[in-house]
Amino acid sequence: MPVLIAGPTASGKSALALQIAQNSGGVIINADALQVFDGWRVLTARPDDADLARAPHLLYGHVPFDADYSVGHWLRQVGDILANPPARPIITGGTGLYFRALTEGLAEIPRTPPDIRAQAGALLADGGLPALLAELDDTTRARIDVQNPMRVQRAWEVLHATGRSLADWQDATPPPLLPLNDVIPIVINADRDWLNDRINRRFDLMLENGALDEARVMKLRWNPAHLSSKAIGAPELIAHIRGELSLEEARKAACTASHQYAKRQRTWFRARMKGWQPYIPA
């Protein structure tokens, strides 16, 4: 039976997936929206060479850093894997929408035209999240993370590209690839203080393991509009390399952003994964 492992950043999802794969076999499939991109391997905590040698991994770093990639892209690729899995699927990551699409289904929403996406980006830059949220219906606002610019912009784009709200599309969703009854669903329930300490220590390890060198390479092709640029810590390290922040200032800002992201993840999981088995890390 497939295993699903969801949890906030730095909570030990990958370690648990590796443990299961080594103990009972399996292929680890990525369910993190930022680990799909190449370029930011260290900063997004993609599996290193040692981890890759311990178990097979799929859908990590396979998308160009400057490409668009959506939950629809991911679901189609996972569907192709599940049609003929090389081993027991162990799907792990922190992107709740990926798991929701996998276990509840995903509406086939048409692609957003480039001009609509440009309008959304300009509106977000000029008026911030409130400018986009003001045009969304109550039902859609209740279903999305209204603090997440990517999710809010996506809802706005769907409305303006199709004339239908995101909630309307979701209500016409086809059957899921993996209903919860057909999997072992695990959600990591981590204590806030424990998790924030791990986040801080992990970012320090990232700096030790080459995150600054990675940022120097990415600086040459940096574009904050790229989805891959949403990696926690990327804007801060680029700002440091440009001389806009000291390394300590960049570190503190990145850790704070990661704490805030983890808080949003925990809130999302508590609200939408009540049927999942909780796992409390030691």
TrEMBL record:
Binding of substrate, residues: T9, A10, S11, G12, K13, S14
- Could you say which residues are annotated as the site Interaction with substrate tRNA? T95, R117
* Biological-process GO terms, alphabetical: tRNA modification
User: How would you classify this enzyme at the top EC level?
Assistant: transferase
Q: What GO molecular functions are on record for this protein?
A: ATP binding; tRNA dimethylallyltransferase activity
Could you name the domain of life of the organism this protein comes from? Bacteria
**InterPro entries xrefs:** Dimethylallyltransferase, IPT, P-loop_NTPase
State whether it acts alone or in a complex, and with which partners, per the record: Monomer.
This one is known as tRNA dimethylallyltransferase
Organism encoding this protein: Profundibacter amoris
Q: Which gene holds the coding sequence for this protein?
A: miaA
